[in-house]
Amino acid sequence: MQALLKFSRGVDWLNSLVGRCLIWLILASTVISGINAIVRKVLHTSSNAYLEVQWYLFAASFLLAAGYTLLQGEHVKVDVIASRLSKRTQIWIDIFGFVFFLTPMALAILWFGTPFVIQAIQTGEMSGNAGGLVRWPVYLMIPLGFGLLLLQGMSELIKRIAFLKGLIDDPTAKKGEKTAEQDLAEALRGLAGAKDKSGQGA
């Protein structure tokens, strides 16, 4: 199990690194978008290449960050029922989801998506728009993104099994961060305190 936990830590490190780097793609996309808008308004000209590179950068940031988002526990969850269950039950639900949903989905996309990328590289497929870009770089984001997501899913699965075995602390707990319920409770206490003070002042 220790070897698997070491693998899990390596995957977490990789996706953390990717997540920190991807913010620069978002910045680059924003800058290019701004420059394109200025050129279009001032010089009355534009290029499909500028538009497509924005799309490429957005696709890269969205797809490559999927693993990092899972690491941070920020994927959308419907916790109306699960949040009322015990922590061990919640962990078992996560394990079921990783094994029967995330892993098959990611493997299927890798299986069908990788040949698609290879074909685009071999044929040198270009955008159908005038002045457009070569297509394979953006297609490559599909297997890369789902590969990172699959690795992170394996890491999360390992951590949850280790937690059930009592080897690590709760992997779903966010250290140093307050839950939405805690934030709401503090906000309500703050409002109650403000009303009390205003009442005393009156």
UniProtKB/TrEMBL annotation:
How this chain sits in the membrane, per its record, is: Multi-pass membrane protein
- Spans traversing the lipid bilayer: 21-43, 55-71, 91-113, 133-151
UniProt key word Transferase: no
Q: Which GO terms describe its molecular function?
A: transmembrane transporter activity
From the Swiss-Prot or TrEMBL record, state where the protein is found.
Answer: Cell inner membrane
Domain Tripartite ATP-independent periplasmic transporters DctQ component, first and last residues per copy: 31-161
Source domain of life is: Bacteria
Which keywords label this protein?
A: Cell inner membrane, Cell membrane, Membrane, Transmembrane, Transmembrane helix, Transport
Q: Name one GO cellular component term.
A: plasma membrane
Q: Which residues, if any, are the signal sequence?
A: none
Cited function: Part of the tripartite ATP-independent periplasmic (TRAP) transport system.
Give the quaternary structure. Answer: The complex comprises the extracytoplasmic solute receptor protein and the two transmembrane proteins.
Q: Which family does it belong to?
A: Belongs to the TRAP transporter small permease family.
What name appears for this protein in its UniProt entry? TRAP transporter small permease protein
What organism is recorded for this protein?
Delftia tsuruhatensis
